[in-house]
Amino acid sequence: MDDELENGNLGPYADRPRTFPNMRSKAYNPLIFRILMGINFRVLLILLFLGLGVVFYIGARTSPIIVFVFSVCIMSFLLSIYLTKWVLSKDEGPPEMVQISDAIRDGAEGFFRTQYGTISKMALLLALVILFIYLFRNLTPQQESSGLRRSTSAFITVAAFLLGALCSGIAGYVGMWVSVRANVRVSSAARRSAREALQIAVRAGGFSALVVVGMAVIGIAILYATFYVWLGVDSQGSMKVTDLPLLLVGYGFGASFVALFAQLGGGIYTKAADVGADLVGKVEQGIPEDDPRNPAVIADLVGDNVGDCAARGADLFESIAAEIISAMILGGTMARHCKIEDPSGFILFPLVIHSFDLVISSVGIFSIRGKPDSSLKSPIEDPMAILQKGYSLTIVLSVLTFGLSTRWLLYTERAPSAWFNFALCGLVGIITAYAFVWITKYYTDYKHEPVRTLALASTTGHGTNIIAGVSLGLESTALPVLVISLSIVSAFWLGHTSGLVDKDGNPTGGLFGTAVATMGMLSTAAYILTMDMFGPIADNAGGIVEMSQQPESVREITDVLDAVGNTTKATTKGFAIGSAALASFLLFSAYMDEVAAFAQEPFKQVDIAIPEVFVGGLLGSMLIFLFSAWACSAVGRTAQEVVNEVRRQFIERPGIMDYKEKPDYGRCVAIVASASLREMIKPGALAIVSPIAVGFPVPDFGLLYWASSTWG
């Protein structure tokens, strides 16, 4: 092949073996996996059983609820292993498909290794900063009375932070790991059946979803149980169980820290590669999307994995962890104020809800089955309708399990009917989740009017297309905001009227009602994440089919899957934004509770008439636009580098267009990887440093003016 390339004696591309540059130098596995793989299997098995024994022993000493959570999470991990084996047992197709898949895999794993190496160094540095801050930070009166020392609080927070960061990183790696192995198997299955290709993509996404949600739940449960046993919670002279959730905030912060940079780096990568590839390939050269002649096509396909799989896994992991911890804090605070006899049910309720999420989402994933008699000649079913049926089944099961959980854990003699009000709060959250999925589907699915109107605007030129697209995007924010506002008010009212009151007779269940609504919205998170992972896997499968020049009938199947995948990715973005909006309300409420504990006085409302508070709100609003501007600039600069490189290759290698020369795919991958890692630092630092900077005391400007005029 190389001799033919040098002599220029190449026949038509379709008549030759299609080979692509193998960028693989050495298979990459994270350090923790390399260590485990180096241990003897029997020794590893013994260590695993010992670890499980310790975990269940600690759980049994804490609460039977924790044992239930551990059991469900471990079963979900076993189920995810089955899904992995099932997906990997499918064939990878012809050699040309495998070579393209290997190139995508190596590019994704190389970027992941570099990106998460950078993130881990920053996380260790931040852990030292947190340790320093907590060593000099005052304890709450409850912590002081329980005998908790500053050093203990500091090391607990740092350990939780590092564990959250580690679990978030593993969640991202799992999402990327499965997508780069499932894409070629979906491509191969598309040669036989659309339903089989759909089933493989869904089960591959299901593996990632079960691991991400399961890790978020079991990580918090292990921390809670460990601290409970180690600190002797609820024993004489020790910490009360209602104060224990405050020690878990480091876990959520670690998850948020990794998710921030994973989203930034992965987002810059995928969008810059996509823009660069399309501007030169589709617009200037007039070649199809994912055409093998485009030097940036591998970088584009790699971006789907690092941006839409790894980053989304870390992002949803962070959302779930933050929601669980904030709900546990609010549950403990409410139980303390209401003098509830056994507050463990209110505190551990979020863990149980997400444990049931693993169960019902597994049922939804397995409800999507292949048809043994399906063939290419049969009409292609609507994949979105199939996924929607699975989601509807998951929703029904979620309503049932949520009602059972509230009756089991939230029943109290102080307010016998309170559990029913909280069950209705959960129903509000579930309806909110379904509404978000429907709204996003309406605005992004090609079968509905908004997308068709946008397509019609494209017939009159680029300008009208941009105007229509921007207006459609702005319009699409209205319904979600209305739905979120209605759900917050409804859930707060239901919680407020639940009958739970403090020692002065004031209702206290409102904030916990919104927490329960957030749990309801995230009670199907694993299935939503499954649909999200389905998107980039289907997108990659379409690229592999196009690059390996498969028959048009195969490309037709992957095109349909890809179109639906774009909708499911948008659905998850909308779902994540909605859940983040509810979770932010919880986090703010949990923050107010912690401030009240430190100040030893009630902190019920924020007065916006105070100048510092008003300015803080303005600065917070400004940061959103500044952060977005820096992120967009980063994408633009990186895309310019890709455009220049692709143009250079087309000029210096004119044989690329005639299939006489190979594009240098690796060069574009390297450019996007290095640029995205460089560009993610500035906006990420803005998000971390700005709250600290705003939190410093405001100087006395009158004193400064007097000093300057005196010493003038």
What would you say this structure looks like, in words?
The chain contains 23 helices and no strands. The protein is mainly alpha-helical and 712 residues long. Helix 7 (150-190) packs across helix 10 and helix 7 crosses helix 18. The longest helix is centred in the C-terminal third of the chain and has 48 residues, at 552-599. The radius of gyration is 27 Å and the shape is globular. 48% of the residues are buried.
> What would you call the structural class?
mainly alpha
Mean pLDDT: 82
Strand content: under 5%
Helicity range of the residues?
over 70%
Radius of gyration: 27 Å
| Count of separate DSSP helical elements | 23
Give the number of DSSP strands: 0
Which spans of ≥5 residues are poorly predicted at pLDDT below 50? 1-27, 373-377, 700-712
What's the story with the biggest beta sheet? none
Q: SSE string, helix = H, strand = E?
A: HHHHHHHHHHHHHHHHHHHHHHH
Q: What oligomerization state is this entry in?
A: single chain
First-last Cα distance: 80 Å
Shape: globular
Q: Summary?
A:
The chain crosses the membrane at residues 31-59, 65-83, 119-136, 156-180, 200-224, 244-262, 346-370, 390-411, 418-439, 478-496, 508-529, 574-592, 613-631. This protein has 712 residues and is mainly α. The protein contains 23 helices and no strands.
Topology:
Layout: H1 2-7, H2 31-37, H3 41-62, H4 64-88, H5 95-135, H6 141-145, H7 150-190, H8 194-230, H9 249-284, H10 297-338, H11 344-366, H12 383-409, H13 418-444, H14 449-458, H15 462-475, H16 478-496, H17 510-521, H18 525-547, H19 552-599, H20 611-652, H21 665-679, H22 681-695, H23 701-710
